[in-house]
Amino acid sequence: MRRMSSELGLKLKNLPTSPGVYLFKNAQGKVIYIGKAKNLRNRVRTYFQRSGHADPKTARLMSQVVDLDLLVTDSEIESLILEANLVHEYKPRYNVRLKDDKHYPYIKITNEPFPRVLIVRRMEKDSADYFGPYTVARGMRRTYELLTRLFKIRTCNLVLPPPKGKTYEVCLDYRINRCGGPCAGLQSQEEYAESVKSVTMVLSGRSKELVSRLTERMHAASKAMNFEQAAEIRDQVEAIRSVIARQHVDIGEIVDRDIVSIAREDKDAVAVVMQIREGVLIGRQDFRLTALSEDSDETILETFFTQYYNHQPNLPDEICISRELPQVRLLQRWLRKLKGAKVTIFTPKIGAKQKLVDLAARNARLLLDELLIQKRQQSERTSKMVTTLQEELGLSSAPRTMVCFDISNIGETDAVGSCVYFDNGQPKKNQYRHFRIKGRVGQDDYRMMREVVGRYFHRLRKEDRDPPNLVVLDGGKGQLSSALAELNSLGFASQPAIALAKRLEEVFLPGRPDAMTISRSSPALMLLKRIRDEAHRFAITYGRKVRQKRMIKSALDDIPGIGPARRTALLNKFGSVARIRKASVEELTEIKGITKKMAGRVIKSLAK
Q: How far apart, in whole angstroms, are the C-alpha atoms of residue 562 and residue 579?
């Protein structure tokens, strides 16, 4: 560990004995490791022992730690939850975490008199029902489309029942028998609730129970001579049975159970969760993980377990895991608190449950093998791209590290620049940078390119970092000349740089009057186009964000009585100014602090 500062030493002397979470930081103030403890004093002090650390991972971690933060909790269970949330937020380098930096989709059933069924990327504390997460989005969307069509769930965003004095006309969905028409009073709230309940039963794995209920309703409708309704229910039953038939693994006992297993090789790992509901295997979720070579399999499994179930809205009664975990009792208490009922975690040794764990382990190993093959093939492809690019451009060394600059501006306002970074042919997004163009430069792309390149390389020199092997500019000869002039003035005269024009994919090199062309089938051109397109995407995205922020500010801030707090509340509720413009007075007054008079001013002002 580095020499301890007086501030850090003082924190260590005053460590509390309560449970909580500790966050280790490096010299840049970045959180690099997060851990939990039943007793913070005892746990944190073990990291700072003078005897050193036999574990290479811990020794490497502590060599970078210069500061720590503490978050005290009331119980060990709260520290477990807080640790999982903070790891998801900060993504520390030395913690095991889900590799994909994205939000898996959920199916959400809203809490409304006439609920909607939506696909969302985040769970919110809004008393709605959530199902997921789904790692295979295509299968989830098929299920979503089947259920909404089968049970005639509305797809509109109308407020139902309608506000007093307001009426709605039925839409096309009603006319093609895809909706029961609750907006026009053609379907009662009780009838609609029955349809939503059917959707909930399928998503929660209670398909067999639903088939029994629907079969009884079908026979009752038939006896009542309501043959049209009986035929409709029959079609629903057949559709659900076809789904059950595809879920062909039946374990022979009525139980809700998850089977969790992992497979790992060095820093790559895959976790598999097989979901059994009512004794039927209804799905498999798989996740890529990133870990350190020194992390044990038990550490990886426990960390994935807490991260996965911390965002799992529908917990089973039992969870089979492939390895015994030291904190299994703490995990059971945590899950019991989440579910409000007992959840048993165990590692089977023999019998049918052990066979299911073996099945999950084989699935995980198969997925990991596929991942390793893809990585190897990708590495071979990108290596060929880089070496081919070196040959095509006549560079003295292979461009293992590359940056690409692009400018985005509409008119004379909101001009921005972007810089993307590729390492060995692959994007390294933590090295991406964006820039707001300073001053008013009109439509002078050359001057803007010079400014962005200059600011980037000035920062490189200030931080004493190595320059990239190659600079790529989105543009032509003018952009290249401007960038080279700036590089020369900053002392980077030997920096390799090229420009790639969009129109004919021509490459401009320093000192050459004419552009060179690279074969369209060449791996070198594919790499150049990829980094150029990524820089363009990044610039466009940031430019759109800047313009949207300015437009929102000008649209809402000019309305009397709408300050920052109310503006934020409006945007959180409706998502955009366009949706606020379409809202009714009744919808606006649902927000705390918005009176009818103020809502009228908002509508009138935005209508202009």
A: 17
Distance of alpha carbon 315 from alpha carbon 341, whole angstroms: 10
The hierarchical CATH code for the domain 6-95 is 3.40.1440.10
3-state SS, residue 108: strand
Domain ranges in the chain are 6-95, 106-246, 257-369, 401-546, 557-607
Residue 309 scores a pLDDT above 50: yes
Q: What token pair was written down for 283?
A: 């799905």
Residues in the chain, total:
608
Residues 233/194, Cβ–Cβ less than 8 Å: no
Cβ neighbours for 314, distance < 8 A, ≥ 6 positions apart: 130, 131, 204
Peptide bond into 513 cis (omega under 30): no
- HSE-up of 438 (CA within 13 Å, CB side)? 5
CA 204 to chain centre: 23
What DSSP assignment string belongs to 362-385? Answer: HHHHHHHHHHHHHHHHHHHHHHHH
Q: Which two tokens stand for residue 473?
A: 């500019």
Q: Give per-residue pLDDT as tens, 50-92.
A: 666 667 778 888 888 888 888 888 778 778 878 887 887 788 8
- Between the two ends of the chain, the Cα-to-Cα distance in Å is 62
Contact 105, 137 (CB under 8 A): yes
469 touches 397 (CB < 8 A): yes
Are 567 and 549 a contacting pair, CB within 8 Å? no
Q: What is the CATH number of domain 557-607?
A: 1.10.150.20
Q: Buried b / exposed e across 343-378, counting CB within 10 Å, b at 16+?
A: bebeebeeeebeebbebbbebbbebbeebeeeeeee
Calpha distance 229→221 (Å, rounded): 6
Q: Which DSSP state fits 463?
A: T
Handedness of CA 100, 102, 107, 110 (dihedral sign): positive
- Look up tokens 């790529």; give the residue: 472
Task: Residue 217: name the closest of 247, 194, 186 by CA.
Answer: 194
Are 58 and 47 in contact, with CB atoms under 8 Å apart? Answer: yes
Residue whose entry in the numeric block shows the structure tokens 């913070």: 40
pTM of the model: 0.54
- The fold for domain 401-546 equals Nucleotidyltransferase; domain 5 (3.30.420)
Q: What is the pLDDT of residues 134-149, one digit of tens each?
A: 766 777 788 788 888 8
The number of angstroms, rounded, from the C-alpha of 491 to the middle of its chain's C-alpha atoms is 41
